[in-house]
Design brief:
- About 35% of the residues lie in helices and about 15% in strands.
- It is of the alpha+beta class and about 180 residues long.
- A five-stranded mixed β-sheet has the order 2-1-5-3-4, sandwiched between helices.
- α3 packs across α6, α4 crosses α5 and α4 runs parallel beside α6.
- The longest helix has 21 residues.
């Protein structure tokens, strides 16, 4: 019995880490393969290949997704951010900094997904609770047992987000008041 014919590679333009990149690939190719093999972005890891472990997580329009299960053709014009795209001018993102400061890694294989999950959480909830943090990390696997350090790093990242939010200048009211 013959399988479905493979789609031929097409030239695709996608935005990854705020840069437009072109690749020639089949639309059904997992985004993870494009990121690692074509764009040499090794933050997302191949873990289970089933979207269950979280090692391959990336942000697509600021929402965490499992790149091993997202076909290239589904990305379209959405913006993809990998672990490498979080730092600004070589300065780690506050979530990355929190994970470094809390030494939240043993082997480090899961950290890509854990960091991406917390960045995504903070993008949609600027003041998450302990339960929100645990829910964001619930489907990310760490086989080394550094869960307590990972939670401490996530709490520290939330603290940084609160400090940044509280230090931001208040918006200026530009509505005119008539005399």
């Amino acid at each position: 019995m013959a399988g479905a014919p493979a789609l031929t590679p097409v030239s695709v333009s996608l935005t990854v880490n705020d840069a437009v990149r072109r690749v020639d690939a089949k639309p059904e190719t997992p985004l993870l393969y494009i990121l690692r093999n074509d764009l040499a972005l090794n933050g997302p890891k191949y873990g289970c290949g089933l979207g269950e472990c979280g090692a391959c997580a990336v942000l697509v329009d600021n929402r965490p997704v499992r790149s091993c299960t997202v076909p290239l053709g589904a990305v379209g014009t959405r913006r993809v951010t990998t672990l490498e795209g979080l730092a600004v001018d070589g300065v780690p993102h506050p979530v990355q900094r929190a994970f470094i400061e809390e030494a939240a890694a043993q082997c480090g294989y899961c950290l890509n997904g854990m960091i991406i999950a917390i960045v995504g959480l903070l993008a949609r909830n600027s003041d998450p609770s302990e339960n929100d943090i645990r829910e964001a990390l619930r489907h990310h696997l760490c086989r080394c047992g550094t869960h307590m350090e990972i939670l401490a790093a996530a709490r520290r990242a939330v603290s940084y987000a609160r400090t940044d939010r509280d230090a931001a200048p208040a918006p200026v009211d530009k509505t005119e008041v008539s005399p």
